Amino acid sequence: MVIAVASEKGGTGKTTVAAALAELARTAMIADCDVEAPNLHLLLKPRVLRSYSLNLSRKARIDPEKCTQCGECEEKCRFEAIRGFQVDPHACEGCGLCFRLCPVGAVSMEQPEGAEVFIGETPYGEMVWARLAVGEEASGKVVSQVRMEAQATAVEKGYELLIIDGSPGIGCPVIASVTGADLALLVAEPTLSGRHDLLRALRTAAFFRIPSMVCINKCDINEVEAERIIADCASLGVPVVAEIPYLEELAEAARLCMTPMEVVQGEAARIFRRLHERVMENLRLSHSRTNI
Ligand code: SF4
Ligand code: SF4
After folding, report:
1. Residues near 59 by Cβ (< 8 Å), separated by ≥ 6?
2. Which of 61, 77, 253, 266 is least surrounded by CB atoms within 10 angstroms?
3. Mind listing the domains of the chain with CATH numbers?
4. What does the pLDDT look like over 18-35, one tens digit per residue?
5. What is the tens place of the pLDDT at every residue in 209-243?
6. What is the distance of C-alpha 75 from the center of its chain?
7. Burial status of residue 67 (CB atoms within 10 A of its CB: 0-12, 13-18, 19 or more)
8. Which residues' Cβ are closer than 6 Å to ligand 2?
9. Are the beta carbons of 167 and 130 closer than 8 angstroms?
């Protein structure tokens, strides 16, 4: 069973919720697909078991020893990535045109390291995450690799549950992190923009035919918008599985790199436990439907 914890934007508490689910599940495979801002490993503190490099994009390089400075490549590069017979690696899109047209073979195409993928062990199960090389943008390819690695490990080690901390947004990385999930748990904050973002995220999940549930984080910072989100979800038939109030201890826990269940107590701990129970109930239902 695969659950993707997602949100349209970073900073909604998505990682906190994913960490709490991992803690409460006790045994799960965990994948941090938020490759642009991976934070889950800071909370779950995995012991690294292995890691490997991932090459992403090709970049052109000009050999100054061979270049005759004819200017052909600079003139034809559509991305204006060549200046003064040197390639700007941040502007180069790797199309290979300069490589093909250089009359003296001075251009080579290289694949610098784009990301490092880590596989580690947490007290709650194994975990996969990635670190992008400086200047690399979050790409669907890195997210797909993290997912593939997590899914392969889950099958190999017999994990029944895969928890994905999804990439925020609506582009390629978020699609790569949620596709194929049995359920998307969308974390939203009750603000005007948060509600708008949630509705877009719900539409994205519906487009990919992924059943959704909603968790409202910091539900008491704007009770009017929280009520509107609840009403929107009711009209769309999407369950709201938790309303988490603003909790000072969660902000402190994130600062100290502690997990949510290490710090919350009393009613707050009960809210997280109920969230976990309702997520698991819906996940089992959804999984059994998709596997008929
Ligand atoms: S096309 Fe080749 S020789 Fe001409 S400027 Fe570019 S790298 Fe140098
Ligand atoms: S590979 Fe394409 S984008 Fe990169 S420098 Fe050459 S022509 Fe420009």
Report:
1. 87, 89, 92, 94, 109, 110, 111, 112
2. 266
3. 2-55+124-290 (3.40.50.300), 59-110 (3.30.70.20)
4. 999 999 998 999 999 988
5. 889 999 999 999 999 999 999 999 999 999 999 99
6. 39
7. middle
8. 60, 77, 79, 81-82, 87, 92-98
9. no
d(CA 33, CA 177): 6
Instruction: Assign 289 a pLDDT band (cuts: 50, 70, 90).
Output: low
Nearest to 3 by CA among 243, 200, 279: 279
Q: Which run of H or E residues covers position 107?
A: strand 107-110
Question: CB neighbours (10 Å) of residue 81?
Answer: 21
Between strands 29-32 and 125-132, the pairing is parallel
The b-or-e profile of 140-167 (16+ CB within 10 A means b, else e) is bbbbbbbbebbbebbeeeebebbbbbbb
If one residue of 61, 62, 82 were mutated to test the ligand 2 pocket, choosing by the most ligand atoms within 8 A of its CB, it would be 82
* Token pair in block for residue 220: 């008491």
